[in-house]
Design goal:
With 148 residues, the chain is mainly alpha-helical. It has two helices and no strands.
Length: 148
């Protein structure tokens, strides 16, 4: 009789462990899906912003080049001046861009990467799990061995 109860308890424990493993796997699968969707949305948003900024800079550059050409009274000199400004920007980023980008990106990225993870949702106790009791007095045992 006692052996049957112990065997039954081990069987229930085995089933509960399997259910816990399955629930944990499902939770982490959903968490991975959530993070991948947020990453995809951020990537699409970044590409859209970059595309609109590209067109903005292109049209502003053409407008500035035309304005400089009209101001200097030379049809192509404004375009050469704007191209020279872009060449200076490229050279600046080739020689100093890594340091500037590192100082701009590293603090925010490391703060986000090393932040404490969000608290996981608190699950209600399973109806089959009960607190451990002292068999002599039927009192619930607390971790510090204090009796309630």
């Amino acid at each position: 009789m006692a052996f049957g109860r112990i065997s039954n308890n081990f069987q229930q424990l085995k089933e509960n462990v399997k259910a816990l493993a399955h629930s944990s796997a499902e939770y982490y699968k959903l968490e991975l899906f959530n993070k991948s969707i947020h990453g995809a949305i951020a990537a699409i948003k970044g590409v859209a912003i970059a595309l609109f900024m590209f067109f903005f800079i292109m049209f502003i550059s053409i407008a500035v080049a035309v304005a400089l050409s009209n101001w200097i009274d030379s049809p192509s000199s404004g375009f050469f001046i704007v191209a020279g400004i872009y060449l200076l920007l490229v050279l600046f980023f080739v020689f100093f861009g890594s340091k500037v980008l590192m100082k701009a990106i590293l603090p925010g990225a490391s703060r986000k990467f090393f932040q404490k993870p969000e608290k996981k949702p608190v699950h209600e106790e399973h109806h089959e799990f009960t607190p451990q009791k002292d068999f002599e007095t039927d009192e619930i045992i607390i971790k510090d061995n204090e009796r309630v």
